[in-house]
């Protein structure tokens, strides 16, 4: 099973609510089990450059079944995955990409959020997953 | 003025309603005045290959301020814009991309729809613009 | 459900057997439900340029849930999908890409074959699907 | 002489056996003397993002006739090959890409493995080369 559009909409609504609560307009992307885009929302005044980043964060999380920031911890100079970002047409390896799991723990997609600090991006993405 | 996320959501809802009415799951992309993505929705079971096509149709329409099919009429072999599709990272020049105008007639963005025949795509895109 | 590696191996074996039978070394790619590569085989002496073509044929078939040649019929100059090949990082729209369906008729992936005439490519791809 | 498909299949089988033994589903790519793809296998549940990484590791190893991790040692900030990953459409310079040699020591291709830690990837790739 993969995330449906209805589920993606609920998750995005939760992300928008959290973004509004912390006062930072966000870009919010959701991909399915196959890492293909299901939905995208750019809140008014959110960074234009974060359109691509939000999408790449979501794909990165699903590509490796872990939060995007985990990849970034391993891809620093001297680290085991240094420069992994050159694969797959470009990865984004800082926080804001979070895997989506169904009730049984199976990964059904991922969300990517970009528009604030990476801490804020991850906060919004994490809060949104609770809507699934 | 550019299309807002609220407006994009209303337009997308109208597109989804029309797609449901004709029984064809669609990919629906909306770009703003700057040709940057505002929102995207892939209806369940819509073609995966139409994610990129819907986005490119919306961008193509806003890039040239005309419906995507108009570009296609001019880009045929022997035509004045032959192979214009090679520009801008790839255009889609068949119907389904429609410009969005505000009440005064000013262009504020564009919608791209892909998932059925080009006639169906254009029908859904055109119907959705009425929601603006 | 998506095609498994075991199933992909059986399908590829059937493709290789058919290719050997007609005496044309082939490139054989199989993608899953999400259009992601599952397996690839290049038979000895098969065209190098067909590595990419076989993969793109498989993706094209799954992207639009139809055989790749169907897209090509519609993408000719003057046709409704003219120049659709510019989407999705490049499509291949001539025959040789065939959708894979399970016993219930559900699409679970696609196969792409390249190395001979398009008639031979399609013949090998079609014969291989019987192994699923 | 270049690695044949039969040899690539034997090497891939050995890689799959080792991957199964250590309990990590892997992506396994083999390229020939010309750095062109010969075979690819994604084991069920292996990371989607490792499709591209396994292929790039194999190419990287054959491009420079050394294991991919050797390139990574030289491409760190301040190192002699800093950012070499930008070449050739993207390299992967961490372990998991290993050159394939015939009985006489001549390089006939390379294998790339991705799906676990870089230590596991290299372990599987190295074990597989014994099958040649």
Automatic annotation (TrEMBL), chains A, B, C, D:
- Top-rank lineage group of the source organism: Bacteria
Any Pfam family: HbpS-like
InterPro entries on file: GlcG_carb_metab_protein (IPR052517), PduO/GlcC-like (IPR005624), PduO/GlcC-like_sf (IPR038084)
Q: What is this protein called?
A: Heme-binding protein
> Which PANTHER family would you find in this protein's record?
PROTEIN GLCG, SLR1406 PROTEIN
Q: Which organism is it from?
A: Segetibacter aerophilus
